[in-house]
Structure formats: structure tokens, C-alpha cells
Amino acid sequence: MAAPIAFVSRTTDANEAEWIRVLATALPTETILPFGSMSAEERDLAEIAIVANPDPSDIAQLKGLRWIHSLWAGVERLVAELGADAPPIVRLTDPELSRVMSEAVLAWTYYLHRDMPAYRDHQSKHIWAELEYRHPQDVTVGLMGLGTLGTQAAKRLQQAGFHTIGWSRSHKVIEGVETFSGDAGLTQLLAKSDILVCLLPLTAETRGLLNRARFSEMKTGASIINFARGAVIVSDDLLAALAEGQLSHAVLDVFEKEPLERESPFWQHPNVTVLPHISAPTNRQTAAHIVADNIRSWRQTGTLPATVDMSRGY
């Protein structure tokens, strides 16, 4: 019988139990145990850990661990907490996650494109006034990050008729999308974008990337959607750009501290829409099948799927 698989998380007991139930259904020949209930012998035997925001001290007790499968697409916290000596980490690459994210990008792009924040403000002030309609082809949406999520989002935006452009650290080619790369390319993207959508992973290079200097390179009155990580944006600089009118609105789904602190100025800001990190929730069913396929493949061949580059953080 194969060694048990450890499920390691910092979540509620109910959520952990539901994850284990769904994973066990997808992996009927495996034994998946919550870390807290494993004996010392079981912890020593475990070669695989399935994790959802695990405590690093728990991972350290799995002495025979050969690899880790994350249930999230974003792994920057996992990489930072486990360090360079961690076993290989496989992050979740789920087509359903890409579909849901592209859906969110399109939905909140429409929210800004169709002036919904302004109409909501008009309602609160009892103002009956029609704003001029803009055709999607006259609106440039700039995507920061052209990985799996960004590529799918670009296609969704194109299908909706938006003029779609994109930026990534290294050059990418997406049919029908003008793409930029490098520092100079980012300046070009910012200058062209009416709506900027951030989908970048959080790394040493992207932390604080969107700051006062970058906001000043954007069109006056442009808006921003952040579905990446909160630390990509310098919050005080964003507030200043909104106050000065350099930016007109920000849709923020991610923050440096979550849940967002009650005293945060974002809550009551008239030009900020706060979302509780809901742009692309992990689907348990599809995630469990992907994790199961990866584990079965490793059991049969000894070959891991693509693992996280610890130096890059994703």
C-alpha cells in the first residue's frame, strides 16, 4: 500500500474535511490524512503533501516529503515561507480557474466601461443623467501578466470587442494582441491603457511595481483592476493618484493584509470598489481531479509535472 498523503492547511476544520472528502473521491486508492491526526510514523512515511496555506512548521515535520502539491495557483506565500530548501512545489494549473478569472476580468471591465461606479454615485445623489456610451473597440484594456490566466483573459476581452494589449516580463505572442515586454514596454502599455488589469504573480520584481511613478505614466482618468496580489500596488500611491484625478477608479480584489482591515481608507473611498478576494475561487471538484491525475502519474512514472521555479517565485 502506498504511503499516506498528508493534507496540510491553515483553514477551518470543516473546509479541511470537505477538501479531503473531495480529494479522497478522486483518489480512491490513496490514503489522505489531515496533518493534525497523523501519527509520528505516518508523518515520517508521507512522500506527498497536498497543501492549502500550510504552516511551515508542519511541513518541516514531514521528514520523507518528496514533493508538495498546492491547491492554489498563487504560491508566493508558500515559496517565501518554505524557502529555497523546500521539496519541489507543484502549483495548481486548472483550466476552470482560467475560465473563471477571464470571466471576472470581463465582468469588471464592463463595470468600468459602462460607467457603473458613476451611475451608482448618481443614484445616491438622485441624479438622472445619461453618460456618453463608448464602444468597446474604442477602449484599450491593458493586461499586466500574460501567463495562462492573462492569455485566457485576453481572448475573452477580444471576443467582447475591446482593443486588448498586454505586457509581460519576457516577450509573449498572442494572436490579435499587441504585446510589450521589459521596462520600456511597460511604459508603453501604461500610456495606452484606458483600463489596466493586473494579473501578475507577486515576486521581488513585481512587489510595489505599480507606484506613483508608474501611475503618472498612465492616461489621466484611466482606471485599474487588481486581481493579482495586493503588494503589487503601493496603496498610498494609489490613493494619491485617485485624489489627484490621475486615476478615476480602482477595483481591488486583493490586499496586502486580508481580510481588509476595518480602518482601511479603501472601504469608504468613493472611487474604489472593494472585493473580498473572489475573482477566481478554486473549484474543489476540478482541482481535485487535476491533483489526482498528477499524483497518479507520479506514482506510475516517477515524473513530476512542472514545478515552481523557487528563484522566480512561480
Overview of the structural elements:
The protein has 314 residues and is α/β, with parallel strands linked by helices. The protein is 37% helix and 17% strand. It has a seven-stranded parallel beta sheet with strand order 8-7-6-9-10-11-12, with helices on both faces. Strand 3 (48-52), helix 3 and strand 4 form a beta-alpha-beta unit. Helix 1 (13-26) packs across helix 11. The longest helix has 19 residues, at 95-113.
Question: What would the keywords be for this entry?
Answer:
alpha/beta; 314 residues; seven-stranded parallel sheet
Quick one: how many beta strands? 12
By oligomeric state, this entry counts as: single chain
User: What is the makeup of the main sheet?
Assistant: 7 strands, parallel
> How many angstroms separate the termini?
33 Å
Helix and strand run:
EHEHEHEHEHHEHEEHEHEHEEH
| Rg (C-alpha, Å) | 21 Å
The helix count comes to 11
Quick overview of this protein structure:
By secondary structure, the chain is of the alpha/beta class. It is built from 11 helices and 12 strands.
Secondary structure blueprint with pairings:
Layout: E1 5-9, H1 13-26, E2 32-34, H2 40-45, E3 48-52, H3 56-60, E4 67-70, H4 76-82, E5 89-90, H5 95-113, H6 116-124, E6 140-144, H7 148-159, E7 163-168, E8 178-181, H8 182-192, E9 195-198, H9 212-216, E10 222-226, H10 235-243, E11 247-252, E12 272-274, H11 284-301
Helix pairs in contact: 1-11, 5-7
